[in-house]
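Listing S7. Sequence submitted for prediction.
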Amino acid sequence: MKILMEKLNREGEELMKKYEAEKSRMKIMIEEERQNQDKERKRTLELNIEIREQEKHQREIQDEMRRERETFRHEIEQMRKEKENIQIKCDTEIDRLTHRTENERKKREEESIEREERRKTLIKEKDREICGMKREREEKTRGEKENEKRREREKQISDEKFRNPNGVFLQV
């Protein structure tokens, strides 16, 4: 019995050793599992932090891009307005120059018409003068011819008075 007791004690001790070894192994496994879970939690936490940082960075990039788009839209709108203003100024200047050119052309045309009318008036006046002078000359010439004819007639009449019926001239 003693042997049996010793055997039982030995078996109990062996079982206790096995139990302690198993207990120790289980503790180690549990500790490893806890460490693995801690590592996994830490890794998950780090991933979540990294994801949040990436999301934050993406939001910042999107915000920056949105601001840049707004800035570009604003700049494009400003350029469009400046272009419109420049176009309006150009159109206004073109209109002004066109009106000026048209007014100068009309003025030159009016001056040309006025000069032409003065020239025609002068020509008409000269023609009238010339016609008047011609008429005067013609009248003078006609008057001279008439005077000469009258003188010739008078001379003829006077010659006939002094002529005798025989055709001889009488002297007075």
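Caption to Listing S7: primary sequence and predicted structure tokens for the chain studied. The helical segments are 2-162. The mean pLDDT is 87.
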